[in-house]
Design goal:
The complex is a heterodimer of chains A (about 450) and B (about 400). Helices cover about 30% and strands about 20% of the residues of chain A. Chain A is built from 12 helices and 17 strands. In chain A, the strands form 7 sheets. Chain A has a 4-stranded parallel sheet, with helices on both faces. Chain A starts with a helix and ends with a strand. Chain B is built from 2 helices and 21 strands. A 14-stranded antiparallel beta barrel of chain B has the order 1-5-6-7-8-9-10-13-14-17-18-19-20-21. Classes of the chains: A alpha/beta (about 450), B mainly beta (about 400). Chains A and B meet through α1, β2, α9 and β17 of A and β2, β8, β19, β20 and β21 of B. Chain B: Keywords: Cell outer membrane, Membrane, Signal, Transmembrane, Transmembrane beta strand. Chain B: One of its GO terms (molecular function) is long-chain fatty acid transporting porin activity. Chain B: InterPro entries: OMPP1/FadL/TodX (IPR005017).
């Protein structure tokens, strides 16, 4: 009888020892019909990992291409290198950090100015000042250059006008003459992502329609065709993204006409309207009362409102009379917004048409971000939306993304690639990435 | 003008119980026989299994036992090969029963203290679902004084009043990072109470088959003034005021059971139980915070549970006068509909098997050991509320031991 008892103990003990961890068997990830052995990313600030109004090491390390590159390693992807700022100069160009909130709940942002990777500045005649950053000379898979437009990719002097591109080239201004497209094509690759074109519309919009021009639609189509034809010349596969609706970003939706007016009316109930300098047609601007369809930029110093401005009719309060309208650069007015929207739609039709013709995967960022603006998004128990700071998606500059935002974008790119090429690049764990950091 | 309104970041924290939280470990002899015991009569554990049968017990009993529970769950996020596993923590369901009555009398008094609901799950603070749940420690201890009366040689009834002392300790990460990139954390910690009853009928039929029918009522357990502890970055702590408390009522569902005992020969007992658990009473889970802000609102979360069933079978073989061998098993359907499965209790239809050994140490003293293995079917889910998407798979290993003194 004793032996039986011992047996039971032994069996129970064995069962406990064999109480090994449950294991969920998953199919081995495959590359499908694509080859990810050298993946490169082509694009602008969003691709570089720019955030909080600057390019800095921590942002580069969570750029969406680096996240994609890391996930691709499960399906034959190689090393993914980026032109990182060094640890000693980890704050790169400098950036904004959130340092607190005012009593009224408005955020206080402070520029970070230590440990920068800035080596100097040159003045280019007829162009202006160009900040020069510490050169980078290693391998590159991520070719994201903040500020670049599609318009610039075949422009030879561009390497002297954009410090972020200049730091990747060996020469000093004004000797650089390598076009961005040639630079990207210098080393063979098997797969690419391309998210160029945002700045062709965004630079116009963020300057309130005052500091830049929209790239001509036909020029955009011509250059996009050149770009994709070049990138796919050896049969490389890839993914492209559409251009987000500029009005879906917090940069244009945080300071609103109604909020400013409400603030004014608290002090002065007689105030009826804000006045802006608005587009009439072509390049003619005239003052008019602002409506909720006029978008005020995030960088507008609201303290200017009501300040006395000298006019032929005496001193009048800024922004509150037709004679002292809010400056054009602070407002993307209704007609400017509609114009931008029209161009973005045309650019996106170009992008989709060419991508379909070349058999590329498409991440429709326009639709995706528009959906988030309208409905928000919940992922792994985290709610995100397009609100400034609290939304968790957009960084402190109101244009670029947080690590969480970039991770979500990387995941969407991966979804598009997997759908198109029957690959199974592992999906991104969004919960590993943060939104805005709070003090 | 640029006021930052924090999101309603805090979704309902607790998805509460499921079959996964019903702990069916209320007697070592019964566990050995597939956790049957509604239609059979073994010992003082009948206070729980069928208060109606207690009066039929030939002796008085004092007994106590414990079942260390190893809950091993694995989550594989959709589209990855990643395996997130719960850490090895051991929950300790226990049972204590006392039964007393004058010799050969028609009545008996009983007391049961047992743990019919609970859970101990720790996914850690780095896994993909950390913003849904990090850890949960849930306990419900039922105290049940009981009276059972023999109406005839073939029929007895009984019932007991139930007092539940429940406690919960739940943590989850909050998606608000501080300057070093660490997310915040919420902890809900509190205890509460609830009341209910447990009653049953026990019949010995002429054919020798015994039949039991029981109803264990729903016990609405209210946790009032539990601590709601929020660790968030300093600059936004005012949106999550401290100290703060929460109130919540959780329905621990009613169970209806019918059980049969068969006695083919003197050495064998065969038992069969069917349970219907009224989880469908569980429609919504609400948390009411004492101090609300725009970021911290009361939560009302749809649950939409469904009725669940379990089928149990078991047998005992008296090898000698001193040794009983037991085995059994069963099947339990899930209470959680598709879209509502959560890491608190990643519930699914389950099968289980049990083994048991009873040994008479001395004239009045029994020792019983049991072992149970439960396997929850792999279940691939996207939770409607959290959008956490992936596959859960869970195994549970439960050894157990008890001592019973009877006279």
């Amino acid at each position: 009888m004793k032996t039986l008892k011992q047996h039971i103990y032994i069996i129970a003990g064995l069962l406990l020892l064999g109480a090994c961890k449950p294991e969920i068997h998953t199919p081995k990830p495959v590359a499908g019909s694509a080859d990810f052995s050298r993946y490169i990313s082509v694009g602008n600030s969003l691709t570089a990992g720019y955030a909080d109004g600057g390019l800095y090491l921590a942002g580069q390390q969570v750029s969406y291409p680096s996240i994609i590159g890391k996930q691709m390693q499960a399906v034959g992807g190689g090393a993914f290198t980026q032109p990182l700022f060094s640890t000693a100069q980890s704050n790169g160009s400098g950036y904004l950090s959130l340092t607190g909130f005012n009593a009224d709940g408005t955020p206080i942002t402070t520029p970070v100015t230590t440990n920068l990777g800035i080596r100097g500045q040159v003045t280019v005649p007829g162009f202006g000042n160009v900040i020069l950053y510490t050169k980078y000379s290693g391998d590159i898979n991520n070719y994201g250059v903040p500020g670049i437009k599609l318009l610039h990719i075949t422009y030879a002097p561009y390497g002297n006008l954009n410090g972020y591109f200049e730091r990747l080239l060996p020469g000093n201004p004004p000797t650089n003459s390598t076009t961005y497209l040639d630079f990207v094509m210098a080393k063979p690759f098997t797969f690419f992502s391309n998210w160029l074109g945002n700045n062709d519309a965004l630079s116009y919009a963020t300057s309130g329609g005052a500091g830049d021009v929209l790239t001509d639609k036909n020029t955009f189509a011509y250059l996009y065709n050149v770009l994709i034809t070049t990138l796919t010349a050896k049969g490389q596969k890839g993914v492209v993204a559409t251009i987000p609706d500029v009005t879906s970003i917090p940069y244009f939706n945080t300071i609103t006409v109604s909020a400013i007016l409400a603030g004014v009316q608290k002090a002065n109930p007689a105030a009826q309207a804000l006045y802006i300098k608005a587009l009439v047609s072509g390049s003619t601007y005239a003052p008019r009362a602002a409506t909720t369809n006029d978008l005020i930029v995030l960088t507008f110093p609201t303290s200017k409102i009501g300040q006395p401005v000298a006019t032929p009719f005496g001193n009048l309060p800024y922004g509150l009379t037709p004679y002292t309208p809010i400056d054009n650069q602070y407002v993307l007015d209704e007609k400017e917004a509609a114009l931008t929207e029209d161009y973005v739609t045309s650019y996106n039709n170009t992008i989709k048409t060419i991508a379909i013709a070349k058999g590329l995967a498409i991440f429709d960022a326009y639709t995706f971000l528009r959906n988030i603006k309208q409905n928000g998004l919940v992922v792994d128990g985290v709610s995100v939306n397009s609100n400034y700071i609290s939304g968790g998606l957009f960084s402190l500059d109101g244009v670029h993304l947080t690590p969480r935002g970039y991770a979500i974008v990387a995941d969407e790119f991966i979804k598009a690639i997997n759908d198109k090429y029957n690959s199974s690049i592992p999906r991104v764990n969004i919960s590993d990435y943060n939104g805005v950091k709070f003090p | 003008m640029r006021k930052v309104l924090l999101l309603m970041l805090f979704i309902a924290p607790l998805t509460a119980f499921s079959q996964g939280f019903q702990v069916n470990l209320e007697g070592q002899k019964q566990i050995g026989m597939g956790h049957t015991g509604v239609g059979t009569l073994q010992d003082g554990a009948s206070v729980f299994f069928n208060p109606g049968a207690v009066a039929m017990l030939p002796e008085n009993y004092i007994q106590g036992g414990i079942s260390p529970l190893f809950f091993k769950s694995d989550f594989n996020p959709a589209g990855t090969s990643v395996q997130n596993r719960t850490s090895n923590k051991i929950a300790t369901p226990f049972e204590f029963y006392g039964v007393w009555g004058p010799k050969s009398s028609f009545w008996k008094l009983g007391l049961g203290v047992y743990t019919p609901f609970g859970g101990l799950t720790d996914w850690g603070n780095t896994w993909q679902g950390k913003y849904v749940l990090e850890s949960l420690n849930l306990k419900a201890i039922y105290f049940q004084p009981t009276l059972s009366i023999k109406l005839a040689d073939f029929l007895s009834i009984g019932g007991g009043f139930v007092y539940n002392h429940g406690s919960v300790d739940l943590t989850r990460a909050i998606p608000l990072a501080n300057s070093s990139g660490e997310p915040g954390q919420a902890e809900l910690k509190g205890s509460g109470k609830g009341y209910g009853w447990n009653a049953g009928i026990y019949i010995k039929t002429e054919s020798g088959v015994t039949v039991g029918i029981t109803h264990r009522s729903q016990v609405n357990t209210t946790i009032s003034n539990g601590n709601a502890i929020f660790k968030v970055p300093t600059s936004i702590q005012s949106s999550f005021p401290q100290p703060n408390t929460f109130t919540s009522t959780i329905p621990l569902p009613a169970t209806n059971s019918i059980g049969f005992g068969f006695y083919p020969c003197s050495k064998w007992i065969l038992a069969l139980d069917v349970n219907i658990v009224n989880w469908d009473a569980y429609k919504t889970l609400s948390f009411d915070y004492k101090t609300n802000t725009s970021a911290l609102q009361d939560t009302h979360s749809a649950r939409n549970y469904q009725q669940a069933y379990s089928f149990r079978g078991g047998a005992q073989y008296k090898a000698t006068n001193n040794v009983a061998l037991r085995f059994g098993g069963g099947y339990a359907s899930t209470a959680v509909a598709d879209g509502y499965v959560t890491p608190e209790a990643p519930d699914a239809n389950r099968v289980y098997g049990t083994l048991g050994l009873g040994y008479t140490l001395a004239k009045h003293l029994d020792i019983d050991i049991s072992f149970e293995y439960e396997h929850l079917m792999q279940r691939t889910q996207t939770n409607i509320e959290s959008q956490l998407s992936g596959t859960f798979k869970t195994d549970v290993y439960i050894p157990g031991i008890s001592l019973a003194y009877h006279w």
